[in-house]
Specification:
152 residues, mainly alpha, 4 strands, 55% helix, elongated
């Protein structure tokens, strides 16, 4: 084999190796960037609609208002959202896809519906948005507490 053929084979082999390795890194970086953007976008959307949600919560803790329902419906129609749970400050379900769960306490809700992570409890304690990856699934559990004048 000629020297130029050997160099060409080495050059081609290294090029393919670098492209494969670079492709793996690029894919993971793209996926991570997309996931981070999606998480932040979800938190920003809740912050955008927070005044509507807080107003509904302050008017009546037991029943969801039409403005809240419109906002929650807008979130629930998003293809990227697998499930949505809306609680009041007393831990009662204000909205869930199953209407029979409404007005149940969070403890009763958890007994019937398995939650994948502890994001809700952590967000309640930390009073900040919490994002947890769901084990063995390409999903995230995002809990965003609303606050009114420093209260949650």
């Amino acid at each position: 084999m000629k020297l130029s053929a050997k160099w060409f084979m080495w050059f081609t082999g290294i090029g393919v190796y670098v492209m494969c390795l670079g492709g793996i890194f690029y894919y993971n970086l793209f996926k991570w960037t997309f996931d981070e953007k999606l998480k932040q976008e979800s938190i920003d959307m809740v912050r955008l609609y927070a005044p509507t949600l807080i107003e509904g919560l302050s008017r009546n803790q037991g029943v969801i208002s039409m403005a809240e329902f419109d906002t929650i419906s807008r979130f629930a129609k998003d293809d990227r959202i697998a499930a949505l749970l809306y609680l009041n400050k007393y831990g009662e379900v204000r909205w869930f896809k199953d209407p029979s769960m409404m007005t149940k306490t969070f403890d009763d809700f958890v007994k019937q519906v398995s939650l994948p992570t502890d994001a809700i409890e952590q967000a309640w304690l930390a009073k900040t948005p919490i994002v947890r990856a769901v084990p063995n699934m390409p999903l995230y559990d995002i809990a965003i507490p609303l606050a009114l004048r420093g209260k949650s």
